[in-house]
Input
Amino acid sequence: MSRQKRLRRVLVYFVGIAIVMITTAVTVPGSLMSGEAGASAERVAAQPMEGVLNPKNGQAVDFKKNIFPVGNLKPTDSILRVRIGEKAPNVSLPAVGGGRVSLSQYLGKKHVVLSFVPAAWTPVCSDQWPGYQIAKDLFDKNNASLIGITVDNIPTLYSWTRQMSSEKLWFPVVSDFYPHGAVASAYGVLRSDGTAERALFVIDKKGRIRYIDVHNINERPPLEDLIHALEKVNK
Amino acid sequence: MRKGNKGTILWLAGALLIFICGGPLPKSAPPDSFAYPSEPSGPPERFPAFTLPAPKSDAERAYLGLSGTGAFATGQIKAQVLIIEAFGAFCPHCHHAAPYVNEVYGAIEARPDLKDHVKIIGVGMRSTPFEVNLFKEKFHVPFPLFADNDMTIEKLLSIDTTPTFIGVKVNKDGPQERFYFRRGSFENASQFLSEIIRLSGLAQEAK
Output
């Protein structure tokens, strides 16, 4: 075959391929090569699939489908080691947002609510802190802050808390992962399976424990009980 | 094999490969794409009657067309269609949905042909009155909200996800009919309202 013929054949191949590409782009909506590619990719990403994030708010499209069903658990499974009126054991734990959060940081400044929840990605827990997220005004009104604690590690808490709100949580979330459950154990709310109780402690500005609610793990503590306790402490 | 045939086969194989690569992506989502998987409403079903405490606010009682201050049955609400939002005061998806539901309320109130015929209420699953009130204040919810802390209504209506939206044809003298059931949120208020109007039969009545 002469050089000229070979060149012509190569040219024919290229023209043919170009025709196929154009035809595909025009006739197959959503093809990777079509003008709709970007839009289609966006639509696919937005489909209601488990674990997919809604690009508008960064939340999981179906957050609740990612929650592990734990069933009905023993309401409480630990022995409290602190009492109302006692000095609160110190808390100094790594926070999801970086650095460490200590109870001593709040001394003389704000009352503190320690909210222990059993574990990330479990029912009830996944509804409890989003509620506190919308109750910031009530905490502020009572000169109180909140620290969320679980025995999960930081990466797990990072993923989990990101699903709770389109806005960043206003309170720090800390990890009592290593040494495992050391703070939960100091308060006497570490369960025999290594998770924490669903427990609330109100600690006043002087560092004294003023309210304790080791709640039934299967139920969310009513917000009003905590707010009334804060009102009493803040009087 | 002749050189010409070999070339044609190669050409066809290349074209086929390009066609496969350029094939369609998975089927695109519906316009209201951030909804949870929501089963079709299905055929209308008899809606179980339940009672709620009358709202404390005069304006909210007037909105529902209630004259008394005691408990009332949903069948007493002065409307042809009742939209019930089953929500959780602490549920993050209900927080996200709140502005869109408010938008539906606003759209209904702005239309004289719907204003007196379609009403919305919200029932807070596993939420105390205090928590429901916080939700109402935080998200400026303009329609009446009720608490279902003891899960009575949750069980009665088979609610397993929040938010869930239920459309009911109100019949003062007989059984009420559920014509709409949607698990999960929406972000397109006008599409949601159109669906309610269409499935309730209000659109046909208007013709």
Summary: The two ends of chain A are 100 Å apart (CA to CA).
